[in-house]
């Protein structure tokens, strides 16, 4: 096992990794920007190194400085968390050549899955159902029109290098296709440095269902059930649950088989997520594979009892998975609410100082957060400040538990998404499990009272 790990991240995920390392008897090195010198991850790690100024491109994404920090402190491995360098194949490659273990899949796999058009092709070849659309990238208007005609409108133009819900354009009519293609290419170039785009059929009211996998370096693979992440705002997840209220045992096995096929097609190693869209008739289609630990991983931990971050570290250390698929038992129901430092109606960032603060507690309540009283939420990074996770025997019990936990949760001094979560957990359609990826937009536009 590793003796020392550097965590190339900040916030709640850095804390999450520090906790896993402690349990495994591993020393930790935090990196931080100048703006994060007083952060909790810096205080809780055994050592810390400042890697640059507030701007993440000069600190949390600064590969030479991060590698130097690992070398100076003698860290044998780097955990990238999510975001920043987590899905940067060049970073994984540089770690490898510096003799530092990157805790995640191999660089070839990251770059294959990081190109969403190539990922689609790989899955198609393996027989994993993908959303009808283009084979590979679309480069010109004529090609785009032909594909759209074949699959039917509406279609969605997506950036091959897209992520975080950005780089997508829905097109309803042929007249708009040429312009949307052009704009999408331009936006993709600016946002991701790659103007490659592809086309998919746009599903009207799908559910986002994803499968968690774990694969060791010896070829053993298991899946840990699904997460329903349909409650989204601008294609970004806000509430997740496991299991999905619409997935039965049979569908779960089918999803699991498809996820295992996706793993074998991409020679995947470590923890990963295979994402699907589910249509009204419960047909599922691959959309992408995320080659990292995800924000919403705790709900899978709650229902499976498996610590995914510890597993990531053990796999990277060359250990074999200790359980077989038949030993994976999913129990009860779990929800996660993402508490963001944002205006809950406009979703604009709300940085500032936390002037009052109280965390909920009790059995089955977990909070993954790096905020503290008088701590400052800066405008430089992701707005996620806490994840509120509950686990109970049934979905109804988990809803009741989440309602109680939300009512106890106090964060003052900044605006947060807490009031929105409270409203959603009181909504009759949500309570019945009747929703799609468009639920939240409609919910917000029908709200009569302001959120507070
Ligand atoms: P990202 O990598 O940016 O997260 P994804 O491909 O995973 O992008 O898609 C994010 C979300 O966008 C999905 O969960 C879904 O809500 C929506 N979406 C993506 N593709 C489609 C599609 N073909 N039809 C309908 N919605 C889609």
What does this structure look like?
A hairpin with an 8-residue loop joins strand 6 (155-159) and strand 7 (168-171). The mean pLDDT is 96. Helix content is 34%, strand content 25%. It has 452 residues and is an alpha+beta fold. It has helices at 11-23, 40-44, 63-73, 89-97, 107-114, 116-126, 141-151, 174-192, 249-266, 297-304, 308-316, 395-408, 418-424, 428-432, 439-445, and strands spanning 4-7, 27-33, 47-52, 77-79, 101-102, 155-159, 168-171, 197-201, 207-215, 221-233, 236-242, 270-278, 284-290, 333-340, 352-353, 356-358, 365-369, 376-377, 384-392, 410-412. The strands form 5 sheets. It has an 8-stranded antiparallel sheet with strand order 13-12-9-10-11-14-19-17, with helices on both faces. A 5-stranded parallel sheet has the order 3-2-1-4-5. The chain has 3 domains: 4-103, Rossmann fold; 132-201, ATP-grasp fold, A domain (Dna Ligase, domain 1), CATH 3.30.1490.20; 207-446, D-amino Acid Aminotransferase, Chain A, domain 1, CATH 3.30.470.20. The chain is built from 15 helices and 20 strands. Helix 4 runs antiparallel to helix 5 and helix 6 packs across helix 9 (249-266). It binds adenosine-5'-diphosphate. Adenosine-5'-diphosphate is lined by residues 131, 156, 162-166, 200-203, 206, 208, 232, 235, 275, 277, 287-288, 437.
């Amino acid at each position: 096992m590793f003796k020392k790990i550097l965590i190339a991240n900040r916030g709640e995920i850095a804390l999450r990794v520090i906790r896993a390392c402690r349990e495994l008897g591993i020393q930790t090195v935090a990196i931080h920007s100048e703006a994060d010198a007083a952060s909790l991850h810096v205080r809780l790690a055994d050592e810390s190194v400042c890697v640059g100024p507030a701007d993440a491109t000069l600190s949390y994404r600064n590969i030479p400085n991060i590698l130097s920090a690992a070398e100076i402190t003698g860290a044998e491995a780097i955990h990238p968390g999510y975001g920043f360098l987590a899905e940067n194949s060049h970073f994984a490659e540089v770690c490898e050549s510096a003799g530092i273990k990157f805790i995640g899949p191999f660089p070839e796999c990251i770059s294959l899955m990081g190109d969403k058009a190539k990922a689609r092709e790989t899955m198609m070849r393996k027989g994993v159902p993908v959303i009808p659309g283009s084979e590979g990238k679309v480069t010109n208007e004529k090609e785009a029109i032909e594909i759209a005609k074949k699959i039917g409108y509406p279609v969605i133009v997506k950036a091959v290098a897209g992520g975080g819900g950005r780089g997508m354009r829905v097109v309803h009519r042929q007249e708009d296709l040429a312009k949307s293609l052009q704009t999408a290419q331009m936006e993709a170039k600016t946002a991701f440095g790659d103007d490659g785009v592809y086309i998919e059929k746009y599903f009207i009211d799908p559910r986002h269902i994803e499968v968690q996998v774990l694969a060791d370096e010896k070829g053993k693979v298991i899946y840990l059930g699904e997460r329903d992440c349909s409650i989204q705002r601008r294609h970004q997840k806000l509430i997740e649950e496991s299991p999905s209220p619409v997935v039965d045992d049979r569908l779960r096995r089918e999803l699991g088989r498809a996820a295992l096929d996706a793993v074998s097609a991409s020679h995947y190693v470590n923890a990963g997520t295979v994402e699907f869209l589910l249509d009204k008739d419960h047909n599922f289609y691959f959309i992408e594979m995320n080659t990292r630990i995800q924000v919403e991983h705790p709900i899978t931990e709650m229902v499976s009892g498996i610590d995914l971050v510890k597993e990531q570290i053990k796999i990277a250390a060359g250990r074999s998975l200790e359980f077989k698929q038949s030993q994976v038992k999913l129990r009860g129901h779990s929800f996660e609410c993402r508490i963001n430092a944002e205006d809950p109606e406009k979703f604009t960032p709300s940085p500032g100082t936390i002037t009052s603060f109280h965390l909920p507690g009790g059995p089955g309540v977990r909070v993954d957060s790096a905020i503290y009283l008088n701590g400052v939420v800066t405008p430089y990074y992701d707005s996620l400040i806490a994840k509120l996770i509950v686990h109970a025997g049934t979905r109804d019990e988990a809803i009741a538990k989440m309602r109680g936990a939300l009512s106890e949760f106090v964060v003052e001094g900044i605006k947060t998404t807490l009031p929105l979560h409270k409203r959603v957990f009181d909504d009759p359609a949500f309570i019945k499990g009747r929703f799609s990826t468009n639920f939240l937009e409609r919910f917000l536009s029908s709200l009569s009272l302001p959120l507070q």
